[in-house]
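Why do we care about 3D structure at all? Because function follows from shape, and shape follows, mostly, from sequence. That is the central idea of this module. The next example makes it concrete: a single protein chain, its amino acid sequence, and then its structure expressed as tokens.
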Amino acid sequence: MQILIHDTKWDERNWAYGVNSSIACYEDKVYAAIGGFNELHFGTRNISGGTWDIKKLLYTPDKYINSGKDMLSMAISSNGNIKFAFYDRTDDTESPWHGLSIFSLSSCASDGWRGYNGFESPLAYNCPAVAFDNNGKFYMATGQNGFTLWQQTCGCSNEYEKILSDDKKRTSYVDMVIDRENMVYTFFTYENKLYIVTAKPNSSTKNCNYPPSIVKYTGKTNLKPGEKWEATIKASDPECDKIRFESIIHSDIFTIDDRGDGTAIIRAIMPEGEGKGTPGLSLWALDDKHPDTNDEISVITFNLVVTPEGKEIGNIKVENKCMGGGSGSTLTN
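And the structure:
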């Protein structure tokens, strides 16, 4: 028996970690999503041995008494993508995570955890149970104000749509399993009865595939005539597809060095002249399954400003138009 987390300052108030925690395994890793009365942690350890690596994902300041992060349910897809749902009771009105939220960590993403709280009424759903089928399709069942079965769509908005909802059957106990044929079995209790809901896909399910998103960039935008300029871009693909960058039309002053690993370096020498110049460049992040520039492809645009003093600042604009599997906000807490 091993204590994973112990913060002695909570002992007097009897606050605890591990509230409704969830655990899952993938290859040689065991993962634990760890709830608490004002914190949410995520831990990993090798099944073959070693020590736990535990990181804090969320923290609500002590002044907010009702801030439990509990009712956790976690699942891992066949390619190692992690999702867990939980309910945050926080009194912090500035928190983006009131009620039901889903946190995701792609096995290929380099921008870390992302959170989704885009449900129409996130406070109305709790007691989540989540699962992936064999093709990577994600399902969730919830309770509280009635029983609801959800599926994640493959659209760019990454919304969760209801498959079945029964507002009359209010339940606080929900669980879910999916068999080898991708049949979804959901269990819940209501008025001393145990119900089972069986959902069979109308057709073959599939693992959603989304275009890359731009996660990091560097580069100044205020330059002088003749000045050398360099910028970098980093993109991430949730399905590990090979990323490439493409620019449709740009000035000859720019050279693009696509490194082949989801990063690129752009170099240029600013044009000479006494007036003001505004050279610009747009780069799209593509992969093999999204080879063409369109309204779903992420793009970064560098708008540079060249003046004799080099003080006027331009701008860099990033448009991640189809976040898909990385939908939601990057966790910063």
